[in-house]
Design brief:
Elements (H helix, E strand, L loop, with lengths): L17 H21 L3 H10 L20 H14 L4 E6 L7 H13 L2 H15 L2 E8 L8 E7 L4 E3 L11 E8 L1 H7 L16 E2 L3 E2 L29 E8 L4 E3 L17 E3 L5 E6 L2 E7 L9 E4 L18 H21 L3 E3 L29 E3 L6 H17 L17 H10 L2 H28 L4 E7 L2 E7 L13 E6 L5 H16 L5 H7 L5 H24 L1
Antiparallel strand pairs: 1-18, 2-3, 2-13, 4-5, 5-8, 6-7, 8-11, 9-10, 11-12, 14-15, 16-17
Helix pairs in contact: 3-5, 7-8, 12-13
Length: 570
């Protein structure tokens, strides 16, 4: 649910900017659309599901049963995210003016990509898409990095702090988006020293009482079996937080203003002087905190782009929010966990035998322990005490949770063929490989969705480099001959405003998980047939210390050839 803006002082409406009210209204509409697709508080619930914490707000009765967790779905999603992120996007950059391929810029792009660990952060965005329906990968600029030359960074955002235009579909024609961050007051004053002068930290203080501890958080019980008592609210104490909520609103503003043509070069020939021009031709960025506008001006990112790119695990048919992959089988796992808890409880209960003592034995039932080796005296000619065990549970009852979990694996695409067991019978290597590859249909679908996201993020990444990297810089990049320096040459002042003079294309085959599997199988065979050199093959496989291994292999081959030559001379 959207966070409603609260005033710093009751009745102080003068401190709230009209722009802040508009941002709050947009945020509310975006949050309502998210809740319609995912459900209210879904992202909070999925956090408890991922961390295996208890999601119940209150317990209705005291319990001595352990709540058995089977984190199979969480593990399957981790496997899936690992397969999806096991890729190295190959980018091709072409200069439209010359038609030539910019190989040096491609290498500089890859160097900055690796330096910022974009693939690592993209893995978190893919995880969010699997669990939350939408992953958000954000690009940022640190102007103080690398001695003031600046550096780009990437990070996966929590979707709960992402509020896109609710009318957006998979084409991502967004008219606005809002990013909410929590910052300390010192950080806010450092970034916006003039407009943040009136902000104050809002510490959360919680009064305490003798019985309830922090007010309103519930009764705190000691550790033990009675630590959970029915009828009382769960303990939800939250630590104090003095940070403030800062919202970044990126939007397309079509406001016009009187045209200013002073010192502007107009084309030659007859032309009509325009009366109006766009006030924000590259979009608009508004930064707000507690009703105050910290910054309002042009969108700093190139070509009117927004600094976020979504990742999906399932196709978003009804808006920008897709269906979380875990939702397709989470009910099966919940039922399996409940059944497994019942199996454990029944196993403990049925393994406890019941003693039957005849009334004429003379044994005091209160004093009888029923422990092994216990000596008891019974009356003559009386029945001996007997321990009776209940009948065993049916075997099929204990197999139901396993059957449900197997069904979950099939729904998530983890079939026996994917794990290397395609079925009975003798299979040729070609048929075996084909059966394994065909079993990754869902992973291939998610890889295709991820290829589009990587294409968009690569364009945003490169165009941002063109705009903000205004000084030359040198990066070391791996080549077939080892690591060599490559210089980034900044664009001239005329092209910095038009970085789209370069075409950026990502090779889709370098992102698809299927292609990576095929590549690992093809490269060794091509190396055996001498089509690929050892150095190039190891680099394609991302083998550790590929250059050192290739160099040692080449030295050994040279020594072997030299020894053969000496033998021939003799």
């Amino acid at each position: 649910m959207a966070t409603v803006f609260t005033l710093r002082k009751s009745g102080d409406q003068a401190d709230i900017s009209p722009l802040s009210r508009q941002i709050s209204e947009w945020e509310k509409l975006a949050a309502e659309q998210r809740d319609r697709v995912l459900g209210q508080n879904y992202l909070h619930d999925i956090e408890q599901f991922f961390t295996l914490s208890d999601s119940s707000d209150a317990n209705t009765s005291p319990t001595f049963r352990p709540s058995i967790k089977i984190p199979e779905l969480q593990t399957l999603m981790l496997y899936e995210a690992n397969d999806l992120s096991e890729s190295s996007p190959r980018v091709y950059i072409t200069n439209q003016n010359t038609g030539a391929q910019e190989e040096d810029r491609e290498k500089s792009f890859q160097a900055e990509w690796r330096r910022s660990r974009v693939n690592y952060h993209a893995m978190f965005a893919m995880l969010w898409s699997l669990f939350g329906g939408l992953g958000v990968l954000q690009l940022g600029l640190n102007p103080d990095a690398r001695g003031g030359r600046g550096a780009l960074w990437a990070k996966a955002r929590n979707p709960i702090s992402y509020f896109p235009d609710p009318t957006t579909d998979y084409d991502l024609e967004r008219s606005y988006e809002i990013l909410a961050d929590w910052m300390h007051l010192d950080e806010i004053r450092k970034r916006w020293p003039l407009t943040s002068a009136g902000l104050r930290a809002q510490g959360v203080t919680q009064p305490r009482s003798a019985l309830l501890g922090p007010a309103g958080t519930g009764l705190t019980m000691p550790d033990g079996p009675m630590s959970s008592v029915g009828g009382l609210p769960a303990n939800r104490a939250t630590p104090s937080d003095t940070r403030l909520r800062v919202r970044y609103c990126y939007c397309l503003d079509y406001t016009r203003m009187a045209a200013k043509i002073d010192n502007k070069q107009l084309p030659s020939g007859p032309i009509t002087t325009p009366d109006l021009e766009w006030k924000y031709p590259n979009g608009r960025l508004i930064v707000e905190c507690n009703g105050r506008i910290l910054s309002d001006g042009d969108n700093p990112w190139p070509l009117g782009m927004f600094p976020t790119v979504p990742f999906w695990s399932m196709p978003p048919l009804f808006g920008i929010w897709g269906v979380p992959a875990v939702r397709y089988s989470i009910t099966l796992q919940n039922v399996a966990e409940r059944l497994m808890t019942g199996v454990f409880e029944n196993a403990v209960r049925l393994n406890n035998g019941v003693w039957f003592i005849h009334s004429n034995t003379g044994i005091d039932a209160e004093a009888f322990g029923g422990i092994p080796g216990e000596v008891c005296v019974i009356n003559p000619q009386s029945a001996v005490p007997q321990c009776v065990f209940p009948q065993q549970m049916p075997a099929h009852f204990t197999q139901i949770p396993t059957a449900l979990l197997d069904r979950q694996k099939a729904l998530q695409g983890f079939t026996p063929a994917r794990s290397g067991s395609p079925g009975a019978g003798n299979l040729s290597p070609e048929l075996y490989d084909e059966s394994v590859l065909r079993s990754q249909g869902l992973t291939q679908l998610r890889g295709r969705l991820g290829a589009v996201s990587f294409q968009m993020f690569s364009e945003l990444w490169f165009y941002t480099m063109c705009r903000f990297f205004t000084q030359s810089r040198t990066n070391l990049v791996p080549t077939d001959e080892g690591r060599k320096p490559v210089e980034w040459k900044p664009l001239d002042h005329l092209m910095q405003g038009r970085p789209d003079a370069f075409d950026v294309e990502v090779d889709e085959a370098s992102i698809q998980p299927l292609s990576q599997t095929v590549l690992r199988k093809m490269v060794p065979e091509l190396m055996k047939s001498k089509v690929l050199s050892v150095r190039r093959g190891l680099n394609m496989l991302n083998f550790p210390h590929a250059e050192e291994v290739a160099r040692e292999h080449e030295q050994e081959m040279s020594l072997e050839a030299l020894s053969r030559a000496k033998g021939v001379r003799r």
